[in-house]
Amino acid sequence: MSKASAIIKSLSLEQALSTIPSGLFVVDTEMQIVYWNPAAEHITGYGAEEAVGQHCSFLQGIPCDERCGLYHTDIPKPIIGGRCTIVTKSGETIHLIKNIEFLRDTEGEIIGGIESFNDISQQYALEESLREQAATLEVRVKARTEELKKSEQRFRIVLDNMDDMAYIANEDLKLTFMNRAMQESFGDRVGETCHDVLHNEKSVCSWCPMDKVFKNRTVRDERKLGMQERTYEIVHSPLPAEDGIRQKLAVCRDITLRKKAEDDLKEANRELDAFAHSISHDLRGILAPVVTYMDFLSITYSEVFDEQILQILGEVECQSERAIALLDDLLDLAQVSHIKAGDHPTDVNMIIDEVIRELGVNKKEMPEIIAEKLPQTWLPETLVYQIFINLIGNASRYVPKESGAIEVGSWDEDKSTTYFVRDYGPGVPNKERETIFDIFSRGKRAKGQRGTGVGLAIVRKIALRSQGQAWVEQTPGGGATFCISLPKAPAFGVDLN
């Protein structure tokens, strides 16, 4: 016999029953308790000397008082995981989970029964708490569901009373709602796909915004809808998921008349640009010979004409040149109407070098210009040149050389870059800063200097047309800092006119 077998053989039934953690008792056919283990004493508070010999009903068990689980003929045995309550010796009612089975002799006759049980009062209390919470949650969910239904009804009523068309489509691209205005144009076609109803397409549109919408983005586009091919601005917005189904709301505003007005305005602007070009060319053709004639007369007849006549000729020549410069500036201003991104980023540093060279040729005694390395921009080169030829040109024209260097730099922000031209000259008075960018506006420091009052207006127009800003600040220590803020990326698809 092995050592393990010897140990098992030496283990008595009494030892086994007395060491298990579950309460256990044995009854005879009269339901009298004949055995009561220590765990049963621990759970109930009754010792073996108190329990043995008593009818098992002394524990006041429920539902034992209604029908005995062991000897009731309608209850099949064994009973596994049955539940009941008993009253302990201290008077406390506790909840038990129990297993019950018959005991039989060697002939198979029933001679009694055995019941094992465990105290699950804490588990029962937790279950009760969870049931109460579940019931409360169910009530709250029901109330919230009612609120959502009412909210949805109000939402749909609002949509139905809109003059703009509106519809809701789910992630399968099927229409789940069409408002009154939508149904008046397309009929009630709820349940059909949006690409079929709106665009007469049997497959998903190539421009379908669903992917972007389901990433919580609002998408705007313009499309022609309906048999009359009217133009609509459509705003696609995500809706909260309902029963796990993602949906989008699309509101369609008829902008056919607005688009026609925009097209008419564009055509008028094109005609105005052409007219401005024509007038500029014709007037330059008239004024250029005047300048040439005045210069010819001044040189050829300088010894014949007296000083007053020469002075008049010089003034006529000066005013004619000023008129030509004004025409050129006005033409530049008129041309800043439609701004589109260039084919490649513009090297601002290259433009600055070109402007400095050009200004250096025309003005030998201008202040030193110090330019830091500047970031690229999406604006085309011609417009970047217009910005800096005006800002640096003004600074070099109005600031004495002895005031210090002119600084060109920039600072970076989240979605924009601000370029600046800073000088340490006389500055711009506070009351002039609001009007300094107006056309023909010339401040006090411009007295005695040649200029048309159009340059800063060009700078501001470029800024506004590119969805940026232009302004002037006081330089710390004295002077003026002219700034222009440009978005880092153009508003593609938007006509900036």
Structure, explained:
- The protein is built from 14 helices and 15 strands.
- With about 500 residues, it is α+β, with helices and mostly antiparallel strands.
- It folds into four domains: about 10-120, PAS domain (Beta-Lactamase); about 160-255, PAS domain (Beta-Lactamase, 2-Layer Sandwich), CATH 3.30.450.20; about 255-335; about 340-495, 2-Layer Sandwich (Heat Shock Protein 90).
- The strands form three sheets. Strands 2-1-5-4-3 form a five-stranded antiparallel beta sheet.
- Helix 9 packs antiparallel against helix 10 (about 305-335), helix 11 (about 350-360) packs across helix 12 (about 380-400) and helix 12 packs antiparallel against helix 14 (about 455-465).
- It starts with a helix and ends in a 10-residue tail after the last strand.
- The model is unreliable at about 490-495 (pLDDT under 50).
Write the layout of secondary structure elements.
Blueprint: H1 3-10, H2 13-19, E1 23-28, E2 33-36, H3 38-44, H4 48-51, E3 79-87, E4 93-104, E5 110-119, H5 121-160, E6 165-170, E7 175-178, H6 180-186, H7 194-199, H8 210-213, E8 219-225, E9 230-242, E10 245-254, H9 256-300, H10 307-335, H11 348-362, E11 369-371, H12 381-398, E12 406-412, E13 416-422, H13 430-433, H14 455-465, E14 469-474, E15 480-487
Parallel strand pairs: 11-12
Antiparallel strand pairs: 1-2, 1-5, 3-4, 4-5, 6-7, 6-10, 8-9, 9-10, 12-13, 13-15, 14-15
Helix pairs in contact: 9-10, 11-12, 12-14
Task: List the keywords.
single chain, 497 residues, alpha+beta, Beta-Lactamase, five-stranded antiparallel β-sheet, 14 helices, 41% helix, disordered C terminus
